[in-house]
Amino acid sequence: MPDKHTQHKSKYTADRMIPGAFEGETVTRRRFMTGTAHTAGAIAAASFALPALGFAIGPIFKQSPHFWEDIGSTEDFTAENYVPVVITITQGIGEAGKSTAYVRKFNPAIDTDPYDRNTPYIAISTRCAHLGCPVRWVDAAERFICPCHGGVYNLLGQPVGGPPVRPLDRFPTRLSGDRVQLYSGRFSVNSELRRFSPRDPGEPLDGIGQYLYPSRPSARKL
Ligand code: FES
């Protein structure tokens, strides 16, 4: 006599003594309806959730195109002081795509980072490295000041007071004849002005910070 483990189990529900089973059926109607309702529910939930998820995380991977833009003539800038220029960060969205940068000529007396030597002009972002408020260059104090929480940066954009966790971001620049051009894709720097792919405000770049806060996938990699 076969033991109960090797006994073949009938595929018919009636043979398996399932309540409400009909002769010849292999799946009870209750189980069939339950499965159908669950499948329909899953499809309905997915039809709401997937598009919402796509909208939520899609922009993280979408890279907005960067470009070189003309910001003025070589005569417009000096090595001693910053000049504010309005720049376009994102094209095609009008005023919302604009920002401001402070630009001055490369000054070998203060710009000691070797990377800066390839940059004829220093262009500093006005986006505060604390929470992103616009900073203002105060000539008399030779400081960038943030009005939101009292962040203070020195001439090189390094924080010297308040809550900012890293220096102000920068933009690459180049010369085209006697015209100065700025690249719309910013880069971030650590306290020694070493370059990194752009980080968001509030993300430190010194020590372990550079690993804890990696650049977003949509950001231009250096
Ligand atoms: S946003 Fe600039 S100090 Fe807070």
Give an overview in words.
This protein folds into 2 domains: about 1-60, no CATH class; about 70-210, 3-layer Sandwich (Rieske Iron-sulfur Protein). The strands form 4 sheets. The chain has a 4-stranded antiparallel β-sheet with strand order 2-3-4-9, with no helix packed on it. A 4-stranded antiparallel β-sheet has the order 5-6-7-8, with no helix packed on it. It has a 3-stranded antiparallel β-sheet with strand order 1-11-10, with no helix packed on it. It is built from 2 helices and 13 strands. The mean pLDDT is about 85. The relative contact order is 0.12. The radius of gyration is 31 Å and the shape is elongated. The termini are far apart. About 15% of the residues lie in helices and about 25% in strands. By secondary structure, it is of the alpha+beta class. FE2/S2 (inorganic) cluster binds near residues 128, 130, 131 and 149.
Give me some keywords for this one.
222 residues, alpha+beta, Rieske Iron-sulfur Protein, four-stranded antiparallel β-sheet, 17% helix, binds FE2/S2 (inorganic) cluster
